[in-house]
């Protein structure tokens, strides 16, 4: 069981930095446990489980790992935790952004270096509610993943590319995943090596690589590369809620479109995803006027 420690370059918030990797409550591949973060994933060296704990008194973050992918995970621990991130490159142009950064100085952009791990759940989130997507991810990992190495029995590692490709159509249906999304995932895993190469590209090239696969558009690519690359400018466009939240937080007006959101965030060119993340951390959202969108379940059809 190898271990490693990392010294953050300044204030550090472990939970808020890594919580973007969690796909809903009950995610079999991710857990927050007290002051610890647990993550199970499939690395190029095989399955691995990582336990990370902040030690504020010592000014360090400590980690240990299990499984064939343990050394790979620990070698890339600083990148995962945001060592190469440069939060000071953002200049706050709005009071809300300035205040959010002041209140959350330890939030950095995580960089996993893994593409399919973020791409597949992002495809599952296309055009459905978050609860539907989280349920699908949870069921698919429980049924088709494998037990994660290490002491936490409930954690699961997602299937490898071949494992995803072998999931029968009725299992996708049972998980509530329609043919459009499952087909996009199958096309991606058939090109798994090409997809994973995007982890070593810049944002523009990585976006082109991902969106060359039918069924993967700019929204899915941005959601993936925010996590894979820790890309500060990978702004999500085409989201149902984000433009409305950004617009309301910055102007107090409702009904902001993608085009208007891009105009509002133009002063943050190069850092637009970071700016959006800080705005979301402010907690300012437009009051709800309509009932929550109903959760569908195609598995019952």
From TrEMBL:
InterPro entries referenced in this protein's UniProt entry, alphabetically: Alkylbase_DNA_Glycosylase/TA, DNA_glycosylase
Domain of life: Bacteria
UniProt keyword ATP-binding present: no
One GO process term, biological-process aspect: DNA alkylation repair
UniProt keyword Transit peptide, yes or no: no
GO molecular function, a single term: alkylated DNA binding
Keywords: DNA damage, DNA repair
Gene Ontology cellular-component annotations: cytoplasm; protein-DNA complex
Descriptive protein name: 3-methyladenine DNA glycosylase
Species of provenance: Streptomyces chattanoogensis
Lineage: Bacteria, Bacillati, Actinomycetota, Actinomycetes, Kitasatosporales
């Amino acid at each position: 069981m190898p271990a490693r420690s990392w010294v953050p370059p300044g204030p550090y918030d472990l939970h808020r930095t890594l919580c973007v990797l969690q796909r809903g409550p009950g995610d079999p591949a991710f857990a927050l446990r007290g002051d610890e973060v647990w993550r199970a994933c499939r690395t190029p060296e095989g399955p691995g489980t990582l336990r990370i704990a902040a030690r504020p008194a010592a000014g360090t973050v400590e980690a240990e790992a299990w499984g064939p992918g343990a050394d790979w995970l620990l070698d890339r621990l600083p990148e995962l935790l945001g060592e190469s991130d440069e939060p000071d490159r953002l200049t706050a142009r709005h009071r809300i952004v300035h205040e959010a950064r002041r209140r959350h100085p330890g939030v950095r952009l995580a960089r996993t270096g893994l593409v399919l791990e973020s791409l597949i759940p992002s495809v599952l989130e296309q055009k459905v509610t978050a609860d539907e997507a989280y349920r699908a991810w949870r069921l698919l990992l429980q049924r088709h993943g494998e037990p994660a190495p290490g002491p936490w029995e409930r954690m699961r590692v997602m299937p490898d590319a071949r494992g995803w490709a072998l999931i029968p159509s009725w299992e996708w249906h049972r998980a509530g995943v329609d043919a459009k999304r499952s087909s996009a995932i199958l096309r991606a895993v058939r090109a798994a090596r090409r997809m994973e190469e995007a982890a070593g590209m810049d944002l523009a090239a990585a976006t082109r690589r991902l969106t060359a696969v039918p069924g993967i558009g700019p929204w899915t690519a941005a959601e993936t590369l925010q996590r894979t690359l820790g890309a500060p400018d990978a702004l999500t466009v085409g989201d149902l809620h984000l433009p409305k939240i950004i617009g309301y937080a910055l102007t107090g007006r409702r009904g902001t479109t993608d085009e208007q959101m891009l105009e509002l965030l133009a002063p943050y060119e190069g850092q637009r995803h970071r700016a959006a993340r800080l705005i979301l951390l402010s907690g300012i959202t437009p009051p709800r006027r309509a009932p929550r969108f109903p959760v569908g379940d195609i598995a019952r059809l």
